[in-house]
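Fold these two proteins, one after the other.
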Amino acid sequence: MANKNKSTWKDIVGTKRLYNNAFKDRDNVIKWDIFPVRDGECLKLIFESKNSEWRQGVWLMCDQGITIYGRHTKNIFLWYDTSPKKVEFICHTKNGLLSVYNIWDRGFGPNSLGYSSGMLVEELPNGCRYRCNDIGFETNFDKLVFRIERIDKCTENKTLHSEGEQNTLDKS
């Protein structure tokens, strides 16, 4: 008989911060972050830097979706090379959580949540800074650096494009 009190990965993913235990000398590497939000809250993602030959980006999701530039979507990829450097969005949520993790593409399609991937998260007065690693244990966690900030009101207006099944933001 199964233990009904035991959590499965489906119960945890998207509801709790997940750590990467593969780094032997670090206990602060986060694979999947949970950023607390209110329903209807406006946030801004700001790309600070990229130090990788590979394409780098961020995946975001709220349980009730995200509105970005007037379009509602369940989740979105924001790529450093095609997104504006500052992206505003509105969170729609019942559980009060925004899921965040880094993504990359070596030319064969998006990758994420690799064995040695993860983020160092720095708490800021109005949000968080994320320092990301894609793969490899010899890292400065500088493959992608971005931050998410709380803002009072979304003001920008651009267009959201769709690439296949996954929504992405393009600055064109």
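Now the second one:
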Amino acid sequence: MSNRLPPIHAGEPPSRGQKLLELVVPSQPDVLRPAIDSVMEMLLARDLVAAPDQAFVRLCLDEAMTNGMLHGNEGDPELSLRLELSLEPSVWLVTISDAGTGFTPECIPAGAGEAAPGPGSALTPALTAESGRGIRLMQAYMSELSYYRGGAVLVMGRGRADR
């Protein structure tokens, strides 16, 4: 795995695949779990995630949505996240958009730039840091991770378990 942070693009993400689910999620902690459950139910109903990977997918969704709520929407309960789940022939994708202006790599604390381990590996400072950990967790587990609109839109994906 690279020590580099995922790419941060200026424009909007390209439209990809067949849209399976679209949610508008208020920036309120009590709606986080039901939104994650909805995504997981759709992924599992289509056999897109293998049983051993479910906890990691759930963790990545939690980290991505929490980052959007806390950092992008600055904890404002009046703002929402937009979440889309889409499907391509070899990968499923989750796109999460917040109302913020994005971020720069310089916003990620020192130590978060270190390579993170894959599932079952020992923890590194990148994963034990209080801030920046979510990006490294997602980067370690997802086969695709990119940011758009300056960091206000996250696209993450993983290979389909049904293929």
